[in-house]
Design a protein that fits this description.
Layout: H1 6-19, E1 27-32, H2 40-50, E2 54-59, H3 68-74, E3 79-82, H4 90-96, E4 100-104, H5 108-113, H6 118-133, E5 136-140, E6 146-150, E7 157-159, E8 169-172, E9 176-179, E10 187-192, E11 197-198, E12 203-204, E13 209-214, E14 217-223, H7 225-235, E15 248-251, H8 272-276, E16 281-285, E17 301-305, E18 309-312, E19 315-319, E20 322-323
Parallel strand pairs: 1-2, 1-3, 3-4, 4-8
Antiparallel strand pairs: 5-6, 5-18, 6-10, 7-9, 9-15, 10-13, 11-12, 13-14, 15-16, 16-17, 18-19, 19-20
Helix pairs in contact: 1-2
The protein binds fe (ii) ion.
Length: 330
Amino acid sequence: MTTIAPSRLATLWQEILTLSQVKPTETVIVVDTPNRINPYPEMAITQAKSLGATAEYLEVPGRTDLPEDAVALLKTADLIIDLAFILDGRIRDCRNGGTRVLVVLEPPEILERMLPTLADKQRAMVARDRLQKAKTMRVTSKAGTDFSVELGEFPGMCQYGFADEPGHWDQYPGAFAFTFPNEGSANGVVVCDWGDIIYPFFTYIQEPITLTIENGFIREITGGVDAEEMRSFMERYQDPEVYAISHIGWGLSRTASWEAMGQYEKGQTEGQDGRAFYGNFLFSTGPNSVGGGLRTTPCHLDIPMQGCSLFLDDEPMVLEGIVVAAGQQA
Ligand SMILES: [Fe+2]
């Protein structure tokens, strides 16, 4: 792990706010929960003001069930800098009014290494547009994955690390494209191989986990201790919805790294390195409400996998962990 100078951190904040199109006429609200030792609120406010915007800090008691007056205030913002990862569904109401939202949780040196660029957005948008047209996705791997879904019920989506367009939600940093399978359409086998990552466990898999998927749901989880941990974690929710397939897509950040997680203690990072590393297959379980679906189970596993091949309508986007699609390569 490295540290960076306060002046460098200030520059990063100015750059991310500029990429997020902060204008002198705009209002930026920085929201966070109490008792966090964090230089980001002051940095964000100072840099937003240096761009001519009005900027203020809003402390909320927790990530859910925001007070009514806090929601009313957030609706007045052009850009919300969310340092807490607010889960209150009324953030969507703010976005429907045009408010942009940028979540920032990673430590300074990761913000520095993964500072996004306009080119990241362009590549992510190419991937999103391709997803938007796709009817099928198939993923294979040498470890034994052979997994297919039908697409079209949910939009193609992407993140690219800044919030520049009205209503856009994003997280700094990380670029990737994703969508959700048509309800009931996911079928096949996903083999999470050694070295693949499981969030929120923040672990590298030591023994392959084989997931047997039928008609949209994981029906069987087999393997060693990692499989047992996953199975036990999911069982605790006592909810069949936890076994559904959530967002699926691929990583597009050259500056993200698979190995970064191993350099930190649990809780020191948010995991954007794993979710965004170039050419990953990001498989996940549980809710699909972010895509517009009805499933809201709180049990959500993100599983970035290495070395997979991902095809849309038989056209390769990623081959054995390498992005090959035109317009998406970096
Ligand atoms: Fe996720």
